[in-house]
Write a structure and sequence with these properties.
Elements: E1 3-5, H1 8-15, E2 20-22, E3 29-33, H2 37-47, E4 56-58, H3 62-67, H4 74-83, E5 88-93, H5 100-103, E6 108-112, H6 117-126, E7 130-131, H7 146-153, E8 159-161, E9 173-178, E10 181-186, H8 192-199, E11 203-204, E12 227-230, H9 236-239, E13 244-247, E14 260-262, H10 269-284, E15 290-293, H11 301-312
Parallel strand pairs: 1-8, 4-6, 5-9, 10-11, 12-15, 13-14, 13-15
Antiparallel strand pairs: 2-3, 3-7, 4-7, 5-6, 9-10
Magnesium ion binds near residues 133 and 134.
């Protein structure tokens, strides 16, 4: 078990020679000093993460982020000015200094300024950027509490900085440039609508089956262990198997309440997003043999929620 606490000095001390769990507004991360390839390599080992899956580098300001890039394309710069700190990651040409281990040999680096007060303080105090993927075994649901991290990876790290439950609950939206156009590679905590209101139409490149730019683009990812299907109106044959039901705002009438979880009784998409990954973990612990998830309306964060549910439902 890792020590869980909110002591910034202690977190910074552990980071001198180790990997720790960190809170962000999206999901918890597994963080190491970006300049320490030995520690970065251990992140891959701890997560059982393939080495073709590069890490996001976290800093505390746009100015710091610019130091880590060779060039910051104007459309991405504008996006960062508008939405950082926040659930947005940008792909930019990397500076010479960024180790190729961090970018899996790619010439671009993923950068993000997270919107979490405790983490921003840590980043300001520790003196180096943090390379950090989500703190879950590769392919599994991302953690949104310190307890989630502890449960799966607690025996492999000394410390988890506890910043409370993740406010957003979905991983960051990943943006980059492709053929001179602003392109979204992963739907996430910053909605496409918000991006498009600010930047105009964007290109979506969300699925790739082999050698993906982001493994979050793999058809199957973010999966609970329980067999998952998407169905808003499961019929009697399905219900006869006593599945766990994940519902958007209303229980399924006539089905046992203790086998159902409602994401947001008010139909609030942000609340639904913040509760999604906890709900998938609860389904795993329910003892049921199947999860039947109801897709949510396809707008705002609902698109990212449905994206995660679809990948969870792909075997
Ligand atoms: O919200 C988040 O983004 C969280 C928190 C901890 O910041 N992090 C996160 O990291 O979700 P991870 O490693 O689980 O997902 C990062 C995604 C990966 O799918 C990775 O392939 C992609 O970002 N990525 C990272 N660097 C990249 C690069 N240089 N080129 C293309 N994709 C990259
Ligand atoms: Mg991840």
């Amino acid at each position: 078990m890792a020590k869980i606490g909110a002591d910034l000095a202690e977190a910074a001390r552990f980071l001198e020679n180790d990997i720790i769990g960190i809170p962000t507004e999206t999901v918890y991360g597994l963080a190491a000093n970006v300049w320490r390839p030995d520690l970065v390599a251990r992140i891959f080992a701890i997560k059982n993460r393939p080495d073709f899956d590069p890490l996001i580098v976290h800093t505390f300001s746009l100015e710091e982020a610019q130091k880590l890039s060779k060039e910051f394309p104007e459309p991405l710069l504008n996006l960062c000015r508008e939405f950082w700190p926040g659930p947005l990651t940008v792909l930019v040409p990397k500076s010479e200094e960024i180790p190729y281990l961090v970018t899996s040999g790619l010439s671009q680096v993923a950068l993000r300024v997270p919107d979490h007060p405790l983490l921003l303080q840590l980043l300001q105090g520790c003196g180096f950027p943090l390379a950090a993927p989500s703190a879950n075994p590769f392919g599994y649901v991302s953690p949104t509490t310190a307890a989630h991290v502890d449960k799966q990876l607690g025996d492999k790290i000394p410390y988890i900085l506890d910043g409370g439950p993740a406010r957003v609950g979905l991983e960051s939206t990943i943006a980059g440039m492709e053929d001179g156009r602003l392109t979204i590679y992963r739907l996430g905590g910053l909605s496409i609508e918000k991006i498009q209101r600010f930047a105009g139409p964007v290109k979506l490149v969300l699925n790739q089956s082999s050698n993906p730019r982001a493994p979050g683009m793999l058809k199957s990812h973010y999966s609970p262990s329980i067999k998952t299907i998407l169905d808003s109106n499961p019929d009697g044959t399905i219900l006869a198997a006593n599945p766990f039901l994940l519902r958007f705002k209303e229980m399924l009438y006539g089905y046992p309440e203790h086998l159902q979880l409602v994401l947001s009784p008010d139909g609030d998409m942000e609340e639904a997003a913040s509760r999604l990954f906890g709900a998938l973990r609860q389904a795993d612990e329910s003892g049921c043999s199947m999860l039947v998830a109801e897709p949510v309306p396809e707008h705002g964060l609902g698109r990212a929620i449905n994206d995660r549910l679809r990948r969870a439902a792909t075997p």
